[in-house]
Amino acid sequence: MFNAGREDAFRTIIKIDSNFTDLPRRGEYGRQVSMMEKEEERSQMMNLEANLARMDQIKNQMESLRAQMMSIQSILADHSSSLEALKEIIETGEKEALMPIGGSAFLKVEIKDTSFCLLDRGGGIFMDTPLDRAREVIEKRVESLRNTITTIEGTMENLLKSYDEISRSAQEVYARQMSGGTGPQGTF
After folding, report:
1. Owning domain of residue 79
2. At 53, which CATH number?
3. Is residue 185 part of a domain?
4. Does 161 reside within a domain?
5. Which of 47, 150, 156, 163, by CA, is between 20 and 30 Å from 125?
6. Does residue 65 contact residue 155 with C-beta atoms inside 8 Å?
């Protein structure tokens, strides 16, 4: 009886062993894990390189947007100054003004006709325009410039958030690589 039970147990072991012939044998499992780790490491390095390239791209976009913003702010300051001068002339009927001649030099001039001004209508074409209409046109331009600045600021804010997220991700991957692990806590 004892032998019969032993034989059944032996048959069961052989049956179980034959079901697991596809499993790696002693020593093979370590090589498979090592290949998986190497593939994961390679994938993470490619991801790190892609993240660094994207960070450079975002940095370049931010620099371009900053330059555009400075240019637009300069144009806005010029338009705002023109708008204030037009408003003052309309309200006071002032006939004297300072005319810039360059190099921070001005001439004191007397305005003969305060009912019209020459307004750039685009493409370097200037037209006689009634002061009220000129004020309306410049106010619309100022509003448009401010909206453009707001849009650029929003775009820059979104880019900065993306940059920060990518930077954190890249730092995590780099830290895992330096610690020798591939998982979130240095192991996988």
Report:
1. 40-179
2. 1.10.287.370
3. no
4. yes
5. 150
6. yes
- Structurally, the chain folds into a number of domains equal to 1
- The model carries a pTM of 0.67
Q: Is 119 left (phi over 0), alpha (psi -120 to 50) or beta?
A: beta
Distance CA 46, CA 79 (A): 49
> pLDDT tens, 68-114?
999 999 999 999 999 998 998 888 887 888 888 988 899 999 988 88
91 or 33: whose pLDDT is higher?
A: 91
Three-class SS of residue 94? coil
List C-alpha distances in Å: 186 to 29, 37, 41, 166, 177. 20, 12, 12, 19, 8
Alpha helices (runs of H) in the chain, residue ranges in sequence order? 2-19, 28-92, 131-179
For residue 4, what pLDDT is reported?
53
The answer to whether residue 34 scores a pLDDT higher than 80 is no
The reply to whether 89 falls in a domain is yes
- Strand 96-102 to strand 105-110: parallel, antiparallel, or no bridges (unpaired)? antiparallel
- Distances 89 to 19, 95, 120, 134 between C-alpha atoms, Å: 97, 8, 18, 12
